[in-house]
Amino acid sequence: MKRTTEKLKGINTSRRLNRNSFSQGADDKDLVAATKPKRRILLTRNYRDINERICPPCKHGGIILIKHKNPTPQIVVSGIRAFCRSGKRSEAKGHVTHLNADGFKILKLNNVIIEESYPR
Question: Exposed (0-12), middle (13-18) or buried (19+): which is 95, by Cβ within 10 Å?
Answer without folding.
Answer: buried
